């Protein structure tokens, strides 16, 4: 879960912004994307996502619902989510290969 936050944040300041109470559109959409990916691809609970993002689970439920809506309406948001999923898949493949001594 934290890797999603770091992937989206890119640097310490970005991670702090995502975990903050900032409400500007870009940061909120990043949180929505993290919520959607964490729930659908990692299987994290809303409570776990909330802990990672430093928000109450009820905020995360609303964030997840917003993400579902945005995925239907906003191709750029879909792309952001898809890039996160691709990053998770890429990192999983690399870790698996490293454990098997292939990298």
From TrEMBL:
Gene3D superfamilies hit by this protein: 1.10.1750.10
GO MF terms held by the record: sequence-specific DNA binding
Name used for this protein in its record: Chromosomal replication initiator DnaA C-terminal domain-containing protein
Species name: Sphingobium chungbukense
């Amino acid at each position: 879960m934290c890797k999603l936050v770091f992937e989206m944040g890119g640097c310490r300041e970005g991670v702090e912004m995502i975990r903050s109470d900032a409400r500007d559109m870009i940061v909120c959409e990043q949180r929505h994307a993290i919520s959607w990916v964490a729930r659908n691809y990692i299987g994290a609970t809303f409570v776990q996502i909330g802990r990672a993002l430093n928000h109450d689970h009820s905020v995360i439920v609303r964030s997840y619902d917003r993400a579902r809506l945005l995925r239907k309406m906003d191709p750029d948001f879909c792309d952001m989510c898809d890039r996160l999923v691709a990053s998770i898949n890429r990192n999983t493949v690399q870790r698996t290969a490293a454990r098997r001594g292939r990298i």
